[in-house]
Amino acid sequence: MKITILTLFKDLIESYFDHSIIAKAKSREVFEIEVLDIRDYSLDKHRHVDDAPYGGGAGMLMQVEPIDRALKACRKDDSYVLLTSPKAKPFTQADALRLAKKEHIIIICGHYEGVDARVEDYIDERVSLGDYILSGGELASLVISDAIIRLLNDAINPDSLMEESYDNYRLEYPQYTKPEVYDNKYVPSILLSGHHANIKKWRQKMALLDTYRYRKDLFEKRPLTVQEKILLEEALKEEGEQN
Which residues pair with 84 in a beta bridge? Predict the structure, then answer.
């Protein structure tokens, strides 16, 4: 897969891909990253890419021409173009899975007060991180890229993907590591038992319990199965007994 990001802050974007799991995936050529400075495609001698909006209003808008020229420089037949914008439903794990199947993704980072509306004639999809406003689309482009890259073959250990939060509309179970006791807080004894079947059942219960506690809305997206209802009832009862 190739990801191309069109931005006004090239250095900020490029540095992210030189760290941690993403850097390792990049070195193994799991994906290719390309970052283009939209200013390089301005016809203005001062490399301006923004101007005041017609009709008046606060702030400046990114112009359509530099963005279109940048797109023409990198877009291929198999490219899929995203525009970071608050005018979109929030990005989800399902979106990451869908986009991970694309051969080439181009992400346009909006900035200032937004972009000329005509830019939308050159994109395939708008994308948002949530119902809040950022100063620019750079953070959104990195979040989207990260979520996609980690799903690619050989990006990370496949076992790490099997039971992640939001897969199947359930949060992940709580996890622990050394030390066994810290500040008088203990690792659950069942995790030290070596009984794999009991550990698996406990993890299923805790995943359901955390989903119930923190994201009950996910049960609306995928209703509880009969077995899950039993496990959740057991978990709630056990929690009540402990309290």
Answer: 127
Residue 238: is its pLDDT beyond 90? yes
Residues of each domain in the chain carrying CATH 1.10.1270.20: 163-242
Contact indicator for 42, 68 with CB cutoff of 8 Å: no
**CATH number listed for the domain at residues 163-242:** 1.10.1270.20
For the entire predicted model, the pTM comes to 0.86
Peptide bond into 179 cis (omega under 30): yes
Residue 71: which residues within 8 A CB-CB, separation 6 or more?
6, 81, 106, 108, 122
- For the stretch 135-148, pLDDT in tens is 899 999 999 999 99
- For the chain, residues classed under CATH 3.40.1280.10 are 2-158
pLDDT tens figures, 69-84: 999 999 999 999 999 9
Per-residue pLDDT at 112 exceeds 80: no
Q: Is 152 in contact with 160 (CB distance < 8 Å)? A: no
- Please state, in angstroms and rounded to a whole number, the distance separating the CA atoms of residues 23 and 13: 13
- Does CATH place domain 2-158 in 2.30.33.40? no
- Tell me if 48 sits within 8 A of 80, measured CB to CB: no
Tell me if residue 31 falls in helix, strand or coil.
coil
Check residue 82 and give its pLDDT.
98
